[in-house]
Design a protein that fits this description.
Elements: E1 15-18, E2 23-25, E3 28-30, E4 33-36, E5 39-41, E6 44-46, E7 50-52, E8 57-59, E9 62-64, E10 67-69, E11 72-74, E12 77-79, E13 82-85, E14 90-92, E15 95-97, E16 99-102, E17 107-109, E18 112-114, H1 135-143
Parallel strand pairs: 1-4, 2-5, 3-6, 4-7, 5-8, 6-9, 7-10, 8-11, 9-12, 10-13, 11-14, 12-15, 13-16, 14-17, 15-18
């Protein structure tokens, strides 16, 4: 009855919450799913999923299994799975994800790189991320 029991540690079983009104500065490393309703400034490394709530603001480079953005993220994002930007969400930064969904009204400003989980394809050359060309830069290069 009072003996130690061995529990199965599931990444989704424990949640970490940065509540509305909370302000966190520094690097955050967590093995569970994370929800941010407050503000964080600093890198986020999460083995589970990350949710940025409607009131949440992350001035962070984010690494996670999956990311759902209903608030605001300013920084680069790397997710193994799906990145979803809801209609109230904003993401300003470059992303690397297996799947990207931007709902109508959602904002994404940056460069995206889509990679499958099984990205180790032989014979495929990786191209570097570059800034997209604008008409003005193309015209000046042609005139120059």
């Amino acid at each position: 009855m009072f003996g130690r029991t061995k529990t199965n540690r599931n990444v989704n079983s424990v949640r970490t919450l940065i509540g509305e009104g909370a302000v966190l500065e520094g690097k955050l490393i967590c093995e569970t799913c994370l929800r941010i309703e407050g503000e964080i400034s600093g890198d986020i490394e999460c083995a589970g999923d990350v949710v940025i709530g409607e009131q949440g603001v992350a001035r962070s480079n984010v690494t996670a299994r999956e990311l759902f953005v209903a608030g605001k993220v300013v920084g680069n994002v790397t997710v193994k799975g799906k990145l979803i930007i809801s209609r109230s969400g904003e993401l300003h930064g470059n992303i690397s994800a297996a799947a990207l969904v931007v709902e109508d009204g959602g904002v994404f400003n940056g460069v995206s790189r889509m990679e499958r989980a099984d990205a180790a394809v032989k014979g495929v050359r990786e191209l570097p991320l570059t800034e997209p060309k604008t008409e003005a830069s193309e015209i000046s290069q042609a005139a120059g």
